[in-house]
Amino acid sequence: MMSLFDLHGKTALVTGANTGLGQAIAVALASAGADIVAVGRSSMAETETAVRNAGRSMQAISADLSTLEPIERIVAEASGERRIDILVNNAGIIRRADAIDYTEADWDAVMDVNLKTVFFLTQAFARKMLADNQGGKIINIASLLSFQGGIRIPAYTASKSGLAGLTKLLACEWAGRGINVNAIAPGYFSTNNTQALREDEDRNAQILARIPAGKWGDPSDLGGAAVFLASQAANYIHGIVLPVDGGWLAR
Ligand code: NAP
What we know:
It contains eight helices and seven strands, in the order E-H-E-H-E-H-E-H-E-H-E-H-H-H-E.
């Protein structure tokens, strides 16, 4: 049974792997046997230590994903050493303001990182996966805002709803070519992304009261879903957006 989830011999590229959910996903994939290529704009030393402690190797690629400029270099640096079997599009940002006041600068910043770069990075790696005909696993990190509206985060909701649609479109185009494209929709997890919410006493209490599990997710709670979707156990799963949310959407 364990071999269904075994990732030995595979390499996973994870964006935004220096902290939060991306770091937890990188460590979980490494614990299942995958070597890691971590892409991000901040030091990934902490993640590298954890990956090495799990017995796997890690290559760090420094890149700012707010534009498409580094994509060619990322593909060249990552593929220069090995084949990328698993791509996890995790890097993302959130900008909060009432919709009535939301600025074009915030809209563009969020859409660029959360949707535009994700699409073109995925396109670049999928071209390689399709060229050697060995398939692959692509996992997008979506959100509850892929299903719901939320408040004060119009660009984030648009980007994550768009990412759910994109996940399904890419799954439809590539399923027959051996590439599985799926997404994970994390609920409310304790990371930098949600620090402002956790520090707001009222919002924190409202959120906790609505989560059937009664607590914020710990980043380590997300790793199993990533390993599952990256493994052969998910070979016939295409185009799903898998909530990992303590029961939030069931409420
Ligand atoms: P986080 O701690 O803020 O991590 C976001 C990651 O994205 C960081 O590694 C960050 O790098 C990276 N990133 C942002 N902009 C970048 C850029 N221009 N270039 C390169 N890297 C960039 O938040 P998180 O919660 O772990 O978020 C990870 C993903 O999960 C995001 O897509 C987020 O939308 C999604 N998500 C989170 C939650 C939650 O409850 N936490 C819920 C649903 C979905 P830096 O550290 O250098 O900024």
